[in-house]
Amino acid sequence: MDFDLSEPEKRFRDEVRAWLKSNSPAKDGEDGVDQKSFIDRRRAWQKKLYEAGYVGITWPKEFGGRGLSFMEQLIFNDEMILAQAPEPINVIGLGMGGPVVVAHGTEEQKKRYLPPLLAAEEIWCQGFSEPNAGSDLSGLQTRAEDRGDHYVVNGQKVWTTLAHVAKWCMLLTRERKEANPRDGLTYLLVDMESPGIEVRPLVQITGDAEFNEIFFHDVKVPKSQVLGEPGQGWAVAMTTLLHERGTLGMALATRAQITAAELAEHARKLGRGGDPLVRQKIAQHTIEARALQLNGYRAVTAVRRNGIPGPEGSILKLMWSELNQRMTETALDVSGPAGQVGDGAGWKYQFLRSRANTIEAGSSEVLRNILAERVLGLPRSR
Ligand SMILES: Cc1cc2nc3c(=O)[nH]c(=O)nc-3n(C[C@H](O)[C@H](O)[C@H](O)COP(=O)(O)OP(=O)(O)OC[C@H]3O[C@@H](n4cnc5c(N)ncnc54)[C@H](O)[C@@H]3O)c2cc1C
């Protein structure tokens, strides 16, 4: 793979860098703001990015995207992280919702869902996990009953990020029980304002409530909101997860390098940079972060070839989540006992938030199974 950017790519990078320099709001201004203002600010930020042409960079032009390649998307992600710019609000919609509608949606669905998703007018969430179906997603029990021109949905989802502000939910439901639990699933796009939906926030170890439980009581969903074929929802769900790990993985590769650099700075500031054990740990983290970046380039090459992210996304997600946990642990060690009390540099928050990294978007154990079976061709675990 060629690591140098072409001339047009360099021009794109310079254009993005200059735009972010004069337009990006500071992330630190967000400390202590309530959830509503946080969401409002992130929504306004996405709108601004959208108007400048930086949202949906790889999406088709006719639906509000820019029709560019994954390379431009990657350049943009790197510049966002380097500029320490905040993320747009619609992370789930942009990373998964849009790409899955592009892949499986009808023309009407693309026209209906993509433009407001890009402009942050409608936020998306992902309703896959249930109390008894997480890693074993095909064990899900939320029912969609066929009533002619619509479905009636009953059941419960859990850990649904952004459900409290979302307009649309990518909802994986069971339409029929079949011998293979992956058969008979139907993928619905559910309007979160429909009668019969109840959202209850769940508070995390950080004190934030990013995710929720959702209860569905006789919720009517028109058939025009089925994505893909009824009963074939598993294939649509797999496209969603490939995008989740792929897009996430690529962004994380750069983020790891920034965290490693911030960690070195943190040790220096506290006068711990000369401690041989601290130095060795930080050097090791930096090496791993760089290796992650190189794997990120490999993932981009796969996307360029096939148009969809491959299992490389699972390598990135697995490596990043474990590395991020080690880096935040080192940061707290370097801070000493004070690091557990105050949160001057934000490391305590990052340490607590990083606990979820090895669970969300596929746990480390499950990702290792995927890599063993699908990449290395080892026998199936079950
Ligand atoms: C911050 C956060 C945000 C999330 N956001 C969303 C969201 O927006 N939408 C959504 O649908 N879900 C979301 N999730 C849920 C997430 O996808 C699940 O938590 C995850 O898939 C694990 O499922 P589980 O919690 O049911 O654990 P389980 O599947 O019950 O796993 C429990 C333990 O068993 C291990 N295990 C399970 N199966 C195997 C196996 N076959 N081999 C080896 N070990 C195994 C797991 O690794 C884990 O350690 C979120 C989770 C977090 C933490």
Task: Walk me through the structure.
The protein is an alpha+beta fold and 382 residues long. The protein has helices at residues 7-23, 35-51, 70-82, 91-104, 107-118, 233-269, 276-306, 312-335, 347-354, 364-375; strands at 124-127, 143-146, 150-157, 168-174, 185-191, 197-202, 211-222. Helices cover 48% and strands 13% of the residues. The strands form two sheets. The protein has a four-stranded antiparallel beta sheet, with no helix packed on it. Strands 1-4-5 form a three-stranded mixed beta sheet. Strand 6 and strand 7 form a beta hairpin. Helix 6 (233-269) packs parallel to helix 8 (312-335) and helix 8 (312-335) packs across helix 9. The radius of gyration is 21 Å and the shape is globular. The model has no long low-confidence stretch (mean pLDDT 91). Flavin-adenine dinucleotide is lined by residues 125-129, 134-136, 159-161, 211, 356, 359-360, 363, 365-366, 369. The site of flavin-adenine dinucleotide has 19 residues, from strand 1 and helix 10.
Layout of helices and strands, plus pairs?
Elements: H1 7-23, H2 35-51, H3 70-82, H4 91-104, H5 107-118, E1 124-127, E2 143-146, E3 150-157, E4 168-174, E5 185-191, E6 197-202, E7 211-222, H6 233-269, H7 276-306, H8 312-335, H9 347-354, H10 364-375
Parallel strand pairs: 1-4
Antiparallel strand pairs: 2-3, 3-7, 4-5, 6-7
Helix pairs in contact: 1-3, 3-6, 4-5, 4-6, 6-7, 6-8, 7-8, 8-9, 8-10
End-to-end separation: 36 Å
Regions with pLDDT < 50 over 5+ consecutive residues? none
Number of strands: 7
How many strands, what sense, and barrel or not for the largest sheet? 4 strands, antiparallel
Please write the string of helix (H) and strand (E) elements: HHHHHEEEEEEEHHHHH
The helix/strand class is alpha+beta
Average the pLDDT over all residues and give the rounded result: 91
Number of DSSP helices?
A: 10
Name the beta content range. Answer: 5-15%
Determine Rg (CA atoms, Å): 21 Å
Cross-sheet strand order for the largest sheet: 2-3-7-6
